[in-house]
Amino acid sequence: MKNNIYTRLCAGLVGLWIIGCNPDFLDRTPMNSYSDPIVWSDINLAKYYLNDIYGNVEYGWTKRGPGYQTGVFAGETTLLKGAQLPEYCNGTIGPGSLGDNRGHLTWSHFSDIQKLNIFLEKIEELPNTYAASDRERIRGEVNVLKGEALFLRALFYTDIARSYGGVPLFGSSLKLGEDFTEVTRNTFEETINFIDNDLKNAIGLLPLKSKIEMGRANKEAAMALRSRILLFAASDLTAGSGVENNLVGYINPNRKALWEKATAASQELIDLGTVKLANFGAPDKDAVAKNYFSFFKARTLSNEEVIWGKLHREDMGNLIKTNQWNGPNGIDNWGNNSPYGNVADTYQMEDGSDFFEHFKVNEKGEYVNISSKYKDANPYKNREPRFYGTMLYDSATQVR
Fold this sequence. Notes:
Number of strands: 4
Largest sheet: 2 strands, antiparallel
Structural class: mainly alpha
Number of domains: 2
Shape: globular
Oligomer: single chain
Helix content: 40-55%
Order of helices and strands: HHHEHHHHHHHHHEHEEH
Strand content: under 5%
Number of helices: 14
C-alpha cells in the first residue's frame, strides 16, 4: 500500500516537473473561441462576426420586446395577455418609470454600434493578410461587408433617433480608459446627417437585392432607409414650428429643401426599377384579399415589393410565434395585439368611400347603417379587400 502511494506520488511529481519545465504550457490556442488576429485575417470569420449583429435587428419597425406593437401607444391596439398594459398606456411612464420591454425605445443599440465600429476599423486590413493573388477578390467581399456594416449602423441610429432625436454620435470604436464624461448629445440635424452619410456610402458598396444572399443588407434597403429617415426629418414633428430645441428637430429650417431631398431619395429607389408594388390580382376582390393575406405568410423575400426582410430557419435558432402572440385569446393564443374598432373603421368600403359615409355610431355605441348604397346592417360587409386579408372579425372564417 505504501509502495503504491509512493509510486503515484513520484509519478505526480514527475508530471508537475515536466509541466513546470515547459514555458509554453499556458500559451495555447483556445479551442472554443477565436482571438482578434485570427478573426481579422479570415473573411469567413469576419462574416460570422457581422452575422451576430444581424441577430439584434428587431422584427420590423414596430416590434417590441414581448411581442406587442407601438399601436398600443396610439390607441390602435390593446395588449390582452394577462390583462397587461405597458406603463405608457397606464399613464405611469416617467423619468423614474420608463417601463420594461420598450423595444427600439432603448439605448441597447449602442452596443451594436460599438461592435460595428470595431468591425469597420478591423476589416480594412483584412485583405492584406491574404496572398497577393487573392487580395482583389477578398477586397471585393470586404467592400460588400463594409456596406452591410454601414447600413446596420445607420439602421440602429435611425431607431434611436426616431425615439430620442439627437444622440451621441460615434464614428469610431470606444477604448477602455477613455474619458466619457464630456460625451454630449449631438443635435438632431447632426444625427440625421450622420445617418444620411452612412447610407450614401452603403448604397455605393452594396449589391442589388437579387445579387446578394437573401436577408442580408442590399442596395435597395439602404436607399429605402435613407428615404424613410429623410422623410421623417422633413415632417412637421421634427421640422415644424413646434420644435423647441435643436436636440429634437430643426430650428427654422428650409422646409422646401428638406422635402425635396426626401422626395429625391424616394425617386432614386423608384427609378432603380428593381422593386415595385405587388400585383394582388385587382380588380378581383376575392383574389386581392387572398393574395394580400398570403403575402405576409411568404417564406421567401423574392416578391418585388419586399425590399428587405429577416428570415428564420424552421429547424434551428429562435422560434417565431407570431400567430400565437397575436391570435385571439381562447384558442391557445395570447392576443398580444388586438385591434380596437376604430382601427377596423379606418378600412374603406369596397368602392373606396369612407366607412362613416355609410355607418354611424348611435348613443348606445351600436353601428347603424345610414347608407343609400349598401343595405347590409353588418358593418363588416362590403369592405375593401385588405380588410378581409387583415382582420379577424365576427362571422369571419379563419384560415389556418
